Structure formats: structure tokens, C-alpha cells
Amino acid sequence: MPSYDFPFNERIRTLLRLEDLFVKVMHNIAGGHEFNHHAALLSLFQILDVIDRAELKADLLQELDRQKMIMNNLRGNPSISETLLNDVISEIELTATALRSNTTKLGQAIRENEWLMSIKQRAGIPSGVCEFDVPSYHYWLGLSDPRRIADLNNWLQPLMPIYEAIRIILHILRGSGARYHYVATHGAYQQMLSGVKPAQMMRIEMADDLECFPEISANKYAINIRFNSLETAQRPRPCDFDVPFSLTLCNL
Length: 252
Hints:
By secondary structure, the protein is of the alpha+beta class. The chain is built from 9 helices and 8 strands. The chain has helices at 10-31, 34-50, 56-73, 82-101, 108-111, 114-123, 135-141, 145-156, 160-174; strands spanning 3-7, 179-184, 188-192, 201-205, 213-218, 222-229, 237-238, 243-250. Helix 1 packs antiparallel against helix 2, helix 2 (34-50) packs parallel to helix 8 (145-156) and helix 3 packs across helix 9 (160-174). It is globular.
């Protein structure tokens, strides 16, 4: 079932962007081919650009500590599995410890690698890492798959506590909120928001056989959804039929 996440603030937007980049890096590392590894490295450089915010680590740690406190307050609740609760709390504690153990700036080890930074600089130029521009990079791409995989994992490993923290936080966020079913009449839906606590993210899910996608405009006061189709892979066209979908307003 296709799903679409729409963040309501910059903090959640950053977490979703980083999640997307980390997933692409890990997928392409596992791909094995040199083209996969080139794509993995480009995504790794994008992660560096996104995490270049001094408050990101503090934000992640603060949210992990807050979620740990919430989970501890759930102890003794007969409707919640004590074993599952202990596993979640343990995972939060391990991730927070790994984040705190790194006292340097996020991604500093990669930034101190002059060779990687030279490639990152060239990668910002269209086709700037051709073999005649950076022969050392062309040589690296020609090394064995296990060697490239080992190098990529070595560069990625110091950043994995960030991914684990984001994975935990977004998993909790996506699991929050009640799921409601609606129908977008002639492909359009609008809903006013009046909750005391503003939602942090909206999640839309649709049936697999619906050949359309949502374009969302939302703030803390209202949600506007317009479902479009992409028949010829050119300009999207508004749907002129009713579209059933589910909507969840998520909040940590």
C-alpha cells in the first residue's frame, strides 16, 4: 500500500530527508556494482550537508530521552507488553549512548578525509567526477566490490547512530495518531484542524490499484489534498474521480 508522509515543521522535514538518504546509501552499498557505490557516495555527501546543523545531535538526544521517559511511565499498563516495552527502552538507551559517545562534530571523520572532500567538491559540478577529472576516484571505483563495500561501510559507520535515532523517532511518530478513512470527491479533499496540540506529520495511505498520488498543502489550521495522475510521465493531471484514502495525523 503506497504511503505519503507530509511534515508540518522543519524538524520533522529534516528527519524524513535524512531517513531517505540513509536508506539510499545502505541500499546502494548492498547493490555491489560500481554505479551503486557511486550513488551511495553521493547520498553520503548529501547526508553531510543536511546534518551540518549544530543542534541536530542535541535535538535527537532530547527526543530520545523524552520518549524513554514516556515509555517508562507506561510500565504496569496491562494493555502493553512489558517485554516489548523493555526492548524499546533498551534500544533507545543504546542509541542515545552511541550518540553521546561521539564527542566530535557529526560527520567530522569524513570531513577530515581530504580525498573524500575533494570528490565531494567535484561532485557538485555536472559530470564533475569523470575519470579525467578525478583519476583516483576512477581507480577506486575499479577496485573489487568487497574493497569498496568495506570503505563505504567504514565511512558510514560513524553516522549510523544518527540513523538509528531517526529510525526510532520516526517509527514512534508514524505509530501515533488514529487512522481515519475518507474519500476525496473528484480528487479533492479539505479538512480544518482545530486540535489543541498541532500535528507534526500527516500520513496518507492508498490502495495499490489507485493510479494517482496526493499533492498536499497543509499548515496547523487546514489540510488541502489534491489527487493527480501521471499517465504519460509528463505533466500531472488532476483526478476527476473519487479517491478513497486513509489519513493519520501523527504527533510525538
